[in-house]
What does this fold into?
Amino acid sequence: MVGLEKLTASVEAELARVDRFLAEKLRPGRPELLPLLDHAARFKGKRLRPAQVLLAGKALGGLGEDHVRVAAVVELIHTATLIHDDILDDATLRRKLPTLHTLYGIEASLLLGDYIYAVAFTVSTTLEDQTCSRVLGEVTRTVCQGEISQVLFKGKTDLSEEDYLEIIGAKTASLYGAACELGAHYAGASPETRERFRSYGYNLGLAFQVVDDLLDLAGEEEKVGKTLGSDIAKGKMTLPLIRVFQAAGDEGRAELDRVFRDVPPGERRRILEEKFDLAQGVAYAREKARDFARAGLAALEGLGGEETSLEALRSMASFVLERDW
It folds into this structure.
């Protein structure tokens, strides 16, 4: 698998400008916020989403200063969602570092996530073309809606695959789609080309989240670098478990219900591994992730542009599918 650093090499200078821009915009007005913001900045990780903004713009020959700002806004929104997600999941690790709420408490971390959202939308208003504000304002609403639905569906062992895909489409894939769409838009793309880039990003985001859910169930914490097993502990039905539930008979479904209802959160994964063939669910979900990646690549077929950047976008599909296994 090609490393992400190689895939983003053609926009590395612009990514560095994004980092400098973020450091400037996140400089707090109060000194007590600085340790929290410094720690949150260490979660930047792979920078997939801002890289997609920049690569889409470069692929279409129109990479400019607006792309740096849009990429920064996308990364700010993503960072805020990570902080809130870690609170919701009771996660203790992120990028092999302690999560913010384990260091500074839930109240301060929750408000810091809100603070970062506010910075994101303040930055978006500095663009002359307000498409970024409109698109990312709607995406943020969609992300929150997806997260709320997931919380409300905790312990719902008969959650359908369709409901699951709608949830991950909202909470994860929508931001991927917006990143690619905005990268194309600010390069002067036609509505048709802009939609094709959105479709690419959205499908890649679906693949990313399915793989993320697989890693939570079957990954190694040391490799992944964050707390795993939180989905089962929180009673969230992800695609591999949905498949296992669908394949189980009435007796098996009743047992899965019992596990989520009666077994302590920390014991659920062990019990499920003992009583169910989780491997079939994992295999099914991995194939679905491949299907989404293929759909994303299909959206880019036949597009002309700067080939190095287009190839980097295409290669991201393999990176998403193979990461951290």
